[in-house]
Amino acid sequence: GLLFQTARRLDRAEKSYLESEKKLRALVAAHPGASDYRQELAKTLLNLAALRIQQKQPQTAGPLSDEAISLLAGLVERFPQEPARRVELARGMANAAVNAQLAGTPAKAIELDQKALEALAGARRQEDSANISYLMATTGSHLADLIDERDGISKALPVYEAALSELRNLAKSAASRPEFVRRLVEELNEIGFRLARAESLEKARALWLESLEVMRSRKETDPADNLADPASRLAANLTAMAQLEHGKGRFDDAHALLGKALELRRDRLPSHPSAAVGALELARAELLESAWREERNKKREALAAVLRASVHAARGLSSSSDADAAVKAVVIIGS
């Protein structure tokens, strides 16, 4: 069912889920004491709920999620000393929260996320683990997104900070995994973007610079870190903020931010998912650097930036047609 759903073959996914549901209900009825069957039935119902939303049937998704959560809550009551049961309940609630958001019921989604965090706090009192911390971070981040959309960033920020605290601890722990670091970088970028959108530019700057430092610290790690995409987005954010500072006449701050964006693009260019796109993006940033240096009558530095841009533009154009007139022109200048 999951494979068909991921491939958007929704009719085949529905058939698989319904067959699974039928068989699991029979097993639960025949073996009422077997907890695994109840847990698997709950997972199937949550998957089916997500499918109903994809099928534009949100009104049928809620009852499926409610039944799944009831099954998982029953297992917590039956096995109160097993923290794994609380974790599965929290995971189910977090999935149901996403379903509720997609179904157009954000108030219910907020309630489910809050209850999921309560369940995780209960599990943590019994046994702490990296998986609990990570689920607290992802659930808290989703909750904060919902609060931001409803009440604004100022109300959401404490919830974001709690999620970031979990991710920061995970990223520097002995149990750190590539997905923890990537998620930290993504959250710093996203929260910074939301702050910038709300015109809290200094707070946005602080988070983006923290994201930059995290990526720098992971520069020589395993390629599984896969930070190329968030690095490209962060470089774009830093460039945009540099342009804002430049527009306000704060030229030194603008150059400093653009310099960080350029450094990030240069560092991450070899791992960019598309080398051509990465080279063209770097060429555009070098052109901006050149223009700003020219404004301040630093002609030698401006020329050096143009020459670097020409090298990157030539590399990008050799394997891509995605370039604007300015980038194409700089190849001629450089040659």
Describe the protein in words.
The protein is mostly helical. 82% of the residues lie in helices and 0% in strands. Helix 5 packs antiparallel against helix 6. The N and C termini lie far apart (56 Å). The C terminus is likely disordered.
Summarize the structure.
This protein is an all-alpha fold and 335 residues long. 82% of the residues lie in helices and 0% in strands.
Gyration radius, to the nearest Å? 25 Å
The helicity comes to over 70%
Structural class: mainly alpha
Mean pLDDT comes to 82
Principal-axis shape equals elongated
Biggest sheet architecture: none
Summarize the helix and strand pattern as letters.
HHHHHHHHHHHHHHH
* Total helical elements: 15
What distance lies between the first and last C-alpha atoms, to the nearest angstrom?
Answer: 56 Å
Taken as a percent bin, the fraction of beta residues is: under 5%
Which stretches are poorly predicted, pLDDT < 50 over at least 5 residues?
220-224, 326-335
